[in-house]
Design a protein that fits this description.
With 302 residues, the protein is α/β, with parallel strands linked by helices. 38% of the residues lie in helices and 22% in strands. The protein has 10 helices and 11 strands. The strands form 3 sheets. The chain has a 6-stranded parallel sheet, with helices on both faces. Strands 9-10-11 form a 3-stranded antiparallel sheet, with helices on one face. Strands 1-2 form a two-stranded antiparallel sheet. Helix 7 crosses helix 8 (170-183) and helix 9 (212-233) packs antiparallel against helix 10. The radius of gyration is 20 Å and the shape is globular. The N and C termini lie far apart (50 Å). The protein binds pantoate.
């Protein structure tokens, strides 16, 4: 039996898997990918920031089913956090993450340090209007620039055939697709459905920062979004928008930052249900005392 060792924080972790390897440097990552690449094996990449949950697990399962090699990156990317407090409180659970990934048969975990990824500040700028200027782009200035910085680096380092992203971050996928097109990355972006808790709450690493009570409160977000689909059948777009915002804001512990009903391709606001073939409602809500920023979306049409 082979043993792979890796240094996780201040602990040496021994894995008895013959398959999964944990590397921390770009050199080790590329060395580990040399043979499978030479043998023409398909490589799937699942980029993550750690604090893995069943949503991530579903991305890994899909990649394992579709590729011979699955690389999972775990990197809490500082450049995509416009709010440093948000970065500080982001959960870090590397040891548990690796245990989950081993169970899901990932091939390789890439968990680099910030210095490894950014030996010097990344001064590249990415701009993909109109998809990156609205919603998260407007409320979190610089966020998508940071996402493009890290994702483009990962694509260059791993050179995957396919890359897997959760649809929970609906706008992120649109921005990454625009970047792939712009930089001519030769790979397929695979969007994967939102995974929800039993209550309907979209799974997110940030959910672990909620108390039990706040988690129950947060469940209203998806419940109201689902109700709004029925409501939409007999109401205008503006009425539906108002229904979602007012209902959620009337719940103690929730505050809607924005709820936009958009064309699902351009992500631009629309005024009427007939204005687009693919219509999506994208929401960001602050929940609880801290408060924790949660996002979700609902497809109305298409
Ligand atoms: O969706 C995320 O977790 C992050 O934005 C990503 C794509 C891993 C880049 O840091």
């Amino acid at each position: 039996m082979l043993f792979c060792t890796s240094f996780l924080g201040n602990k040496n972790v021994y894995s008895n898997s013959v398959r999964m390897k944990i590397v921390h440097t770009i050199e080790d990552l590329q060395r580990a990918l040399e043979t499978p690449r030479r043998e023409g094996k398909k490589i799937g990449l699942v980029p993550t920031m750690g604090a893995l949950h069943n949503g991530h697990a579903s991305l890994v399962e899909r990649s394992v089913a579709e590729n011979e090699v699955t690389v999972v990156s775990i990197f809490l990317n500082p450049t995509q956090f416009n709010d440093k407090k948000d970065l500080e409180k982001y959960p870090r659970t590397l040891e548990a993450d690796c245990a989950l990934l081993e169970q899901k048969n990932a091939t390789l975990v890439f968990a680099p340090s910030v210095a490894e990824i950014y030996p010097e500040p990344d001064t590249r700028t990415f701009s993909y209007p109109p998809v990156d200027t609205v919603m998260e782009g407007a409320f979190r200035p610089g966020h998508f620039n940071g996402v493009c910085q890290i994702v483009s680096k990962l694509f260059e380092m791993v050179k995957p055939h396919r890359a897997y992203f959760g649809e929970k971050d609906f706008q992120q996928i649109a921005v990454i697709r625009a970047m792939v097109k712009d930089l001519k990355f030769d790979l397929e972006i695979v969007p994967c459905p939102v995974v929800r808790e039993e209550s309907g709450l979209a799974m997110s690493s940030r959910n672990t920062l909620l108390s039990e009570e706040e988690r129950a409160t947060a469940a209203h977000i998806s419940q109201v979004l689902f109700q709004s689909r029925n409501f939409a059948a007999g109401h205008t777009l503006a009425e539906t928008r108002e229904f979602v915002i007012d209902t959620l804001n009337s719940i103690v512990g929730l505050e809607v930052q924005y709820f936009s009903i958009v064309d699902g391709y351009t992500l631009q606001d629309i005024d009427n249900w007939e204005d687009a073939d693919f219509v999506v409602g994208c929401i960001t809500v602050y929940c609880g005392a801290t408060p924790i920023r949660l996002i979700d979306h609902i497809k109305y049409k298409g």
